Amino acid sequence: MSLHDDAEIKRLIEKHWGRVRSTTSAEKKQQIERLAALLKQDSGDLMHGQLLFKKNCGVCHTLFGEGGRTGPKLTGYERTNLKFLLPAIVDPSAAIREEFTNFLVLTNDGRTVTGLIDKQDPRTVTIRLVNNETTLINRDDIEVLKALDVSIMPEGLMKKLSDQETQDLLAYLISNAPK
Ligand code: HEC
What is the pLDDT of residues 62-104, one digit of tens each? Predict the structure, then answer.
């Protein structure tokens, strides 16, 4: 029964994501300002940006017909509206679209699976994992199925990129078409 305990679920979440929301809002504001300043310099390399997008974002997001489905398609997203785009990148958990809610599943045999619900019927639930693969679980085997308020999209993705890499990725992200 301890699995239904909120403290136990919190422990599992921290085990999977590390300490959640560890970045303060002041740090996030600074990160957003950094991205905005880099974008203004307007010296990104689109070809290199495409590669960086594939590597850092493409597992989950489709852009210009290529990529995964764990996150929303970005092709039709208003990518040039930096007021939405930059916070969405820096602070993914601030606003999560319902269809992309992150779920935690605990099975009777002690497995934990997290991801979005790709499909479900009265007997099974199919979870799409962070690596864009899917796994089908019988409802009979599920002990807990719980919506989380932490996005599947990790925080701090742009922090590991250099200034030039960030410029390249962002230039590609706000471009009209590849190549
Ligand atoms: C592990 C999967 C994953 C990775 C990697 C990832 N994202 Fe996301 N992203 C998501 C999910 C899921 C959402 C929807 C939930 C949310 O808003 O947090 C999302 C939301 C977004 C949104 C808002 C889109 C909308 O329609 O609301 C943008 C913009 C975005 N991501 C950009 C990026 C960029 C740029 C990268 C690479 C630097 C990236 N993402 C990497 C999963 C991912």
Answer: 999 999 999 999 999 999 999 999 999 999 998 898 999 999 9
Structure tokens given for 140: 């009979």
For residue 5, is it within any domain? no
40 phi, psi to nearest 5 deg: -60, -30
Question: Which CATH number is 136's domain given?
Answer: 2.30.30.100
Q: What is the extent of the structural domain holding 56? A: 21-96+154-173
pTM of the model: 0.89
Give the atom of ligand 1 at the shortest distance from the alpha carbon of 70.
12
Query: Dihedral of CA 84/146/6/22: which sign?
Result: negative
What is the Å distance from ligand 1's center to 152 Cα?
8
Nearest Cα residue to atom 18 of ligand 1:
92
60 and 136 fall within a common domain: no
